[in-house]
UniProtKB/TrEMBL annotation:
This is Oxidoreductase. It comes from the Bacteria. Residues 1-30 are annotated as: Disordered. It comes from Streptomyces rubellomurinus (strain ATCC 31215). Signal peptide: none annotated. PANTHER family: XANTHINE DEHYDROGENASE, XANTHINE DEHYDROGENASE SUBUNIT D-RELATED. GO terms for molecular function: iron ion binding; oxidoreductase activity. Residues 40-153 form the Aldehyde oxidase/xanthine dehydrogenase a/b hammerhead domain. InterPro entries: Ald_Oxase/Xan_DH_a/b (IPR000674), Ald_Oxase/Xan_DH_a/b_sf (IPR036856), Ald_Oxase/xanthine_DH-like (IPR016208), AldOxase/xan_DH_MoCoBD1 (IPR008274), AldOxase/xan_DH_MoCoBD2 (IPR046867), AldOxase/xan_DH_Mopterin-bd_sf (IPR037165).
Amino acid sequence: MTSPTDIGAALQQDGGAGGTPEPVGLGSSPLRSDALPKALGIYPYAADLWAEGLLWGAVLRSPHPHARIRGIDTSAALALPGVHAVVTAADLPPGPDGTPDGAPSGPIVADRPVLAVGVVRHHGEPVAAVAADHPDTARLAVGLITVDYEPLEAVTDPEQAFTAPALHPDGNLFRHLPLRTGDPDAVGEVVVEGLYQVGRQDPAPLGAEAGLAVPRPDGGVELHLSSTDPHGDRDRTAACLGLEPDRVRLVATGVPGATTDREDLSFQVTLALLALRTGRPVKMTLTREESFHTHTSRHPALLRYRHHADAEGVLVKVEAQILLDGGAYADVSAEALASATAFSVGPYNCPNVFVDAWAVRTNNPPAGRMRGEGALQACFAYEAQLDQLAARVGVDPVEIRRRNAMATGDPLPTGQAVTCPAPVKALLDAVAAEPLPALPVDDPDAEWLLPGGPGGAGDPAAVRRGIGYAVGMVHMLGAEGEDEVSTATVRVSGDHATVICAAVDAGQGFATLARQIVQTVLGVSEVYIAPADSDQSVAGPSGRGRHTWVSGGAIERAALMVRHQLLQPIAANFGMSVELLQIADGKITSYDGVLGMPVAEALEGKELWATAQCRPHPTEPLDDAGQGDAFVSISFCAMRAVVDVDIELGAVRVVEMAVAQDVGRALNPRQIEDRIEAGVAQGVGLALLEDLRTAGGVLLNPSLTGYRLPTALDTPEVRIAALLEERDVVATFGAKAVSAVPAVVAPAAVAAAVRAATGLPVGRLPIRPEDAVTA
């Protein structure tokens, strides 16, 4: 049977239905390798998997945000016909003192139990799990488990976490990060202040979490999951189960949408535990409500800012307090806080910066990785401050940003010099120069374009247009000393090549890029990307542009080593060095034109392979004053938002988003534009719609009917004003990450446009109708 990857590759070679081969190699925009199987509905996801003797898993979750567990009675569930196992924290390896501790784990701090023991700390926390011969039986059995809860007072206000009783043995403070640079006594002639609030945004993946666990004869387990980090998930799963890592294998299946870590670890460990306990394959497919309870969301934030500037609007000092609500467990709160703190001033120069930032524990749902974690919350606040400052000094929003814009070589408030390209002024100028869209009131046939649609906009005379600008930044790769490394193998046999790399394509198109890299280096058009699993060498997690840089770099290096193996005997035959030969358009040619040989002919009868690693330059943790070279590189983006606001009803329609972004090098222009559009859509969602609401720590809207996502009619036209290609000399191919920074900037730009239309301060996200009503 032809695999989905093979189908995509075949379509690419045939040029689709038209029969004309598409361009290949870096800089072109070939069809994505997974496009056809996804369009045909035959792309394999974890929810599609099956195994002989399959059992179904289900999880019992806490109805309380905070409660003591006084006892668990599983007898009724075990007595139900068709039930094969019920597991609790007592079935996991015990803690260091020999008593159950729930096998806690986490990406940075191991504080989150797989199954709650003694206490539950958030609504929906896993308490027990069942394996049965039918999914309905498993869910029925879950309902028969009796848990004796003693409800405890829930701490849901992050400001109360400082004085509340400890919710966990590790305390309520995940991290306090002060940043101090410059003169604390500096003052400006103009001072503006603001209080800003960012709500809880959920990644709301297209497909809910699902997976299959298969026990192995050696006592280990094989997991088939939509993981974005096969080795990290394998190692943490093995540790939680008390197994050696080589007895756990994780196979990455198709990822149905991922803008964050794909699954909470408790999901896969529980799945594996059920398979080991029953000795049979176990599958688990979550409902949408369970999905909201399982994965982490964006950190809600409270930010207080004071900007000092001179009479011309040039920044003198920035003071800020940033508070992130990390929820019940640490996850990556410390990492998100570092980003929020380091980028608290944004892509602007300021000699004096004084910030105090905290991430705290509450009984709210856990927060974790999501595009631009930390940077987004800060961007919303500092851009609102600059709009205030522009109004106070009497200049337009673009000019105030140009006067303070960072450039290459300028320092961050952390003391780190920005050595990568930082074309902030050029990005601003590009979006400002774009023509504005037409007003819908000028077109009698365009009533549906008004806020609220036909008949929903009230009086068209109440519609006001607003134009807002924002600029933002994100760091690429890991930060603060995180070791970034990836390994790849490239094998060439005959007229085709195979890439073996554990880098998961989570929807960002990395498999297509990997194919383009090999096509460029080796001139081989047929390239197969092997499925990712933990038996391969480490490639690390998806996100923050890592795989383009680190895994792409490893693939390029391996391909270059194969290229040398291919060209060396040819060069020797002609008495020249390898450097005097080149591969282009499927041919090997010499500098003098004497040699012209098809690559396929040179490869005939040969099998060549090489393995290589890529590891970017190291970083360091921020010190007690928030100083240090914490980031490998930074990506920048500027946006102009155009909105129409019904000032009587508070309805907002985003008409257009103009985007200018520094991409370093456009390796695949079509994919870059697609990813920018996706980031803008996610940012617009947070700006106007997306809010995972809680009351007393209990989720109120864990469904796709209650949690509002932007539809096609809510998503604006995205105008790409510029893709600036100033290569980052330390990055692989000179390219920068592209998807996170549009999501960071879009909410701030939309909020700025709503302010311009209404004259109201707009200090919270998402923007509610009452925030945009002036009449």
